[in-house]
Amino acid sequence: MSSPVAEVLAPEVFDRLHPVAITDPQEIRSILLSLRDQGTLLSRGTNRAVEREEAVIESVDDSQLRVRCRNFGKIGEALFLSGYVRHVPHFFSLMVAADDSGRSGDVTVLASTPRVVYRSERRDRIRRDAPGWRRIRLVRPGESGAGALEARVVDESGGGLGVELDEGQSTGVGDEFVVVEERSEIRPFATVCSVDDSRIGSRRCRVGLAVYPRRPSVAPNAEDFDEVFGDLRRGYSAERTSSVPAVPCVVGFLNAQGEPVVGLLDETANCPTQCPAVVIPSAWGKTKETLLPLARALVAQFEAEGLPLRVLRFDGVRKRGESHNDPECAEPHLGNLNYTFSQGAVDLAGAASYIRREQGATKVFVVSFSVASVEARRALADDETNAFDGWVSVVGATDPQSLIRVISGGVDYLGGAEAGVSFGVQDVQGLLLDIDRTASHALEERIAFLEDSRRDFARVSVPTTWISGRHDAWMDRRRVDDVLSFGDSSNRRHVVAETGHQLRSSKEAAMIFQWVASEVFRFSSGRAPSVEGRTDYREMRARQRNERGRLREFEASSEAVRGFWRDYLVGRDGTLGMELVIETRSFRDLMGRQADALEIRSEHTVVDLGSGIGSFARYLDESGPPEAIPKIIEVDFVRDALKRSRSRRPESPANRRSWISADLSPAEGDVGLPLRDCVADRVLLSLVINYVRDPIRLLDGARRLLRVGGLLAVSALRKDADTSRICVDGVLELREGRALSAFGEEGEAAAARALGTFINDAGRLLDLEEQGVFQFWDDVELSRILVAAGLDVLEVVPVFGEPAQAWLAVARRSEE
How far is residue 15 from each of residues 11, 156, 414, 610, 779, measured CA to CA in Å? Predict the structure, then answer.
């Protein structure tokens, strides 16, 4: 039986799934004039100070706009803005012609008129025309039917209605109604989401309604993590350190379907038979070994208070890991091929049953991450035996549709499945998934959409705390507030932390894990902890090595790594790979920061170690006159990447460019860099040092290449690097015009096909770091590595995205 491969989506699939594209110049101009006349506040995101980036259109000429921007960082070549036109979201890109960003305060830019404006659908579900002239009445809550609005239903979807009000009647966004329909005893609740009174020749108003089974309650106010964590720490009286057993305790049990589940058990010292317990299901693409730091934080907190606790981390069935899987899913990249969301709920219920029955748990709490929060909310909603006593969701997904739509580069697999679109096997964050199987199962089990999540939350009664990442591009915090308002919201918390989606080993992760431990302690004891539990991280790293040593999924052979990097750099089909990142604002900003740090002059020789397809050389080509370009030696071990770099600069003088194939991570005893000593004035290692076997050996080689006084720039991904915002912004940039300007019409189509694959390969980088194949560092660790290689560190600054996902270190080779 041959191994499945990801299927290529036809262009017509994208046409059916993406938002409405407006390309008529007159209609675009009308939209821009409306935004100008209304003074509509447009937005891009947040800056480093977490201030909202805002813009207002000041003028609209025949081919140019003047836009005033506030709180923006560097503007860059393109400006990507979103705003509401008649209560409907629109978004577009502007190619910037000039700006005055050297000034402080507001910045005014001149930009070309967009060639396309996207109008977003207000509803996630497909719309179906309503049969006949179905009539309804909209009655305000608490009022009699005397002042009701009369309307006919035009279209409907799961959780939504499109209605046309009778002539002369109107309403506004946010208005609330009870829906009354003849011959129906059901009185659902509705909120107005959109109003369209712009149709020429019509006196009737079109209204979009979100419809709920019952009126939602008020969502808990979002709390700031720094404040709640600070309040907690001020209440501590002392610190105690928890040690870590070096040998992992492996346990097994059967789920309700009789399939074996494998887990790892952590517990406090001298743990009695009867005690509380925490169960932690694995997140998408992760295994139980990932969250040892969280397990140890939980144990340390209870141990510091002198109370017992058990923590069970387990791999789900038909997921990557050691638990049961189907025969065709034996390879690691196929581990999630037959995954379904409801299977995770079954496994979680089985874990709760096991920990109570076999381990004597008196209370059971759930801590879930990412996609596993979908599984947890279904397990808690279906909990008829009161198996669970509390839930903490960390950067959790509220619903599968919104999450998968983002991480796939904009492909709405679940909405498409509802519309009858077939996708086959697709690559989702580095793992193959049978989308048709997963989606159809999610639709059958009513677990796919936001409406399903609302219904489940209405049945969740245990205390619930939800931690969102302010910079988590995979999740939408508005949806968190939405779902938390269904059911009993009096025992729910929503805490927003300064983090992204990746939480494993960074300082931010350690603080959040400690606070999660305090929340579980509060659930269990009814009070805040008085003593801070601390983990011995030296012992925990030894435990991590032992746990990873049991599972060696990825053999870091030279050929395996070379194959991975070839796919990443030049694309799996050989068309577009790293080019997709090169064309994004965040990456161009990184190249600029590195060029500035190296203080490059035309007489210099620059060695680019790990050059890939020549991203840095291309940046230098495009940022200055030809006479200012230095001599550049590009070095990489992927020959296809060097060939692509060379083919895209055929006009370069032979004596100003050279390309060398060499392994930057050779095995012990192999030859190092094939260049003579002191050949370079400047050396660059751009986002490469994380991935080599021996970083100090590579830095020794880089130092050897430098002349005395020469500069070295090293950029490296930080711990728990979360490229979600960079990926999301990059996809938006490319789809809104950058792909056309960079690759032409034919390349634009190729980019659309390649985007999802590239995002998945980027996710694979993080996966390999988790397995210990690659290494990510904080700023102090990166400085130590440079010093160990005999370099004088000048500075280490944050770079790559907002918030920054990498460090840029600048060092000098001294006389010694």
Answer: 7, 21, 15, 38, 44
Distance CA 513, CA 39 (A): 43
Of the two residues 7 and 495, the one the predictor is more confident about is: 495
Cβ pair 153, 128 in contact under 8 A:
no
Contact between 268 and 307 (Cβ < 8 Å): yes
CB-based contacts of 782: which residues, under 8 Å, 6+ apart? 714, 716, 796, 807, 809
CA 111 to each of CA 23, 60, 93, 119: distance values in angstroms, whole numbers, following the listed order: 17, 10, 9, 20
Please write down the long-range contacts of 245-251, taking CB distance under 8 Å and 24 or more positions apart: 245/543, 246/539, 246/542, 246/543, 246/546, 247/546, 248/543, 248/546, 248/547, 248/550, 251/312, 251/354
Q: Under a CB-based contact definition with an 8 Å cutoff, are residues 107 and 75 in contact?
A: yes
Helix (H) or strand (E) holding 619: helix 615-623
Q: What mean pLDDT is reported for the chain?
A: 83
Helix H, strand E, coil C: the string for 196-247 is ECCCCCCCCCEEEEEEECCCCCCCCCEEEHHHHHHHHHHCCCCEEEECCCCC
pLDDT at 509 over 80: yes
Please, are residues 588 and 582 in contact by the beta-carbon 8 Å criterion?
A: yes
What is the per-residue pLDDT across 580-592, written as a single tens digit (0 to 9) for each?
667 677 788 899 9
- For residues 637 and 611, give the distance between their C-alpha atoms in angstroms, rounded to a whole number: 9
Read off the pLDDT band of 46 (50, 70, 90).
Answer: low
Q: Which amino acid is at 180?
A: V
Q: Where is average pLDDT lowest: 116-125, 218-227, 619-628, 657-666?
A: 116-125
Q: Is the peptide bond before 653 cis (omega within 30 degrees of 0)?
A: no
Task: Please report the sign of the dihedral spanned by the C-alpha atoms of residue 514, residue 520, residue 521, residue 523.
Answer: positive
pLDDT tens digits for 477-507?
888 999 999 998 999 999 999 888 888 878 8
Structure tokens at 11: 């262009």
User: Do the beta carbons of residue 800 and residue 590 sit within 8 Å?
Assistant: yes
* Residue keyed to tokens 């992204």: 500
Residue 508 CB: number of other CB atoms within 10 A? Answer: 21
Quote the radius of gyration of the chain (alpha carbons, Å): 28
Give CA–CA dist 570/545, Å, rounded: 33
pTM over 0.85: no
Give strand pairing partners of 392: 367, 465
Per this entry, what is the length of the chain?
816
DSSP element (H, E) containing 250: strand 249-254
Q: Which residue has the higher pLDDT, 790 or 548?
A: 790
Q: Which residue has the tokens 């049969």?
A: 131
- 3-state secondary structure at position 759: helix
Query: Do 706 and 712 contact (CB within 8 A), yes or no?
Result: yes
- Residue 572 identity: R
Left (φ > 0), alpha (ψ -120 to 50) or beta: where does 310 sit? beta
Dihedral (Cα; 677, 682, 687, 691), 10-degree rounding: 10
Helix H or strand E segment including 765: helix 739-770
